[in-house]
Design a protein that fits this description.
Layout lengths: L2 H10 L8 H8 L11 H4 L11 E3 L1 H14 L2 H4 L3 E3 L15 E7 L4 E7 L3 E7 L3 E5 L2 E4 L5 E4 L5 E5 L5 E7 L12 E3 L8 E2 L8 E2 L1 H10 L4 E5 L13 E7 L14 E7 L1 E6 L2 E6 L3 E4 L5 E5 L5 E7 L1 H7 L16
Parallel strand pairs: 7-12
Antiparallel strand pairs: 1-19, 2-3, 3-10, 4-9, 4-11, 5-8, 5-10, 6-7, 6-9, 8-13, 14-15, 15-21, 16-19, 16-21, 17-18, 17-20
InterPro entries: Cupin_2, GDO-like, RmlC-like_jellyroll, RmlC_Cupin_sf
Organism: Cryomyces antarcticus
Protein name: Cupin type-2 domain-containing protein
Length: about 325
């Protein structure tokens, strides 16, 4: 046997056979491995590549369906009567790749039964009177524009006294549990967890709209943003954060491209957002989403001041070192 033939058989592993990259890749399937060089661009893209797309959910269009659900589906059947805001990309039943939003309804004299879960929740009250949520023994009255937190693993139930529906926007980090399969729910033995009425203004899980609007109106500038923070200055959770924004009539916000994905709700006013150069119109009651790394800017109509509520995944991204804003370079921190 010649030296060349010996080298070929050693290289190929099978004497006398010609090998190829295609054959190698085909045979790798049996080894439960994959060639990184064929996945390099997918795993290391040149820019963030979210699967969700920008979208506006019209409150006027969705609300009649939600009220129909209130007539047709009991609270016992539903446990939580919610219409999830599903991104049209439909890669998963969520609003963005990392954030879930849904419109929840409680009808008069109903109780959404007590349970607790791993997921943290932020709730923005859209409309109604006489609603309440009880969080781990503290019953909180719901007022339009308030943001109410449900910390992880706290028993909570929702209810409604008087006439008319109570509707709010739920915000949770449910999409994260596709990658961390640790989420679950535990139900309380009774429909309501024992609770006492508390002063809403003194609760650490309630952010009254009256106080937030006063902060926004007292600040200078055509566009103002104020975050929802704990008393010690920390974000409301490790995974979700939120803020409220004021935009004077006929003005615009700064243009931003960031790795955070966000959900906005229009508290009042009307206008539009330019997202990646496309115009998305909205008005009071509407909810819209902005995917990661999509450049956006908000514009208020000439008729009135706009107030916006936003929740996002920024705290999680900052904790993991993933948060970036276009045009801002962040130096690497290396521990020795």
């Amino acid at each position: 046997m010649s030296t060349a033939q010996t080298e070929t058989s050693v290289t190929n592993g099978i004497k006398g056979k010609t090998d190829s990259a295609e054959q190698l890749i085909a045979e790798l399937d049996a080894t439960n491995t994959l060639p990184l060089w064929m996945q390099m661009t997918k795993l290391n893209p040149p820019s963030p590549n979210p699967t969700c797309i920008p979208y506006v959910w019209s409150y006027d269009y969705i609300k009649p369906y939600l009220l129909r659900a209130g007539e047709l589906i009991s609270e016992k059947q539903a446990e939580r009567r919610v219409l999830m805001l599903i991104n049209p990309a439909r890669e998963a039943p969520y609003t963005t790749d990392t954030v879930y939003a849904g419109l929840q309804l409680v009808m008069p004299n109903e109780t959404a039964p007590a349970h607790r879960h791993v997921a943290f929740a932020m709730r923005f009250i859209i409309e109604g009177q006489g609603g309440f949520t009880a969080v781990h023994g503290r019953r909180i009255a719901m007022q339009r524009g308030d943001v109410i937190l449900t910390p992880t693993w706290n028993y909570h139930d929702h209810g409604k006294d008087g006439s008319g529906p109570m509707i709010w926007l739920d915000g949770l980090h449910l999409p994260l549990f596709r990658h961390f399969p640790v989420h679950f729910v535990q139900h309380y033995s009774q429909a309501r967890y024992p609770a006492e009425d508390i002063d809403t203004s003194a609760s650490p899980v309630v952010f009254p709209w009256a106080k937030m609007q006063a902060q926004l109106d007292a600040a200078e500038g055509n566009w103002v943003s104020r975050p929802y923070k704990k008393a010690d200055g920390r974000d409301v959770s490790l995974t979700l954060g939120g803020c409220a924004e004021r935009l004077n009539k006929g003005t615009s916000s700064p243009s931003v491209r960031e790795t955070a994905s966000s959900v906005y709700h229009v508290i009042s006013g009307r206008g539009y957002s330019e997202i990646e150069g496309k115009k998305y119109e909205w008005k009071q009651g509407d909810t819209f989403c902005i995917p990661s790394w999509h450049k956006y800017q908000h514009f208020a109509d000439d008729s009135e001041t706009v107030y916006l509520y936003r929740f996002d995944d920024k705290p999680m991204l900052k904790s993991l070192g993933f948060y970036r804003v276009e045009g801002e370079d962040i130096e690497s921190l290396v521990s020795e």
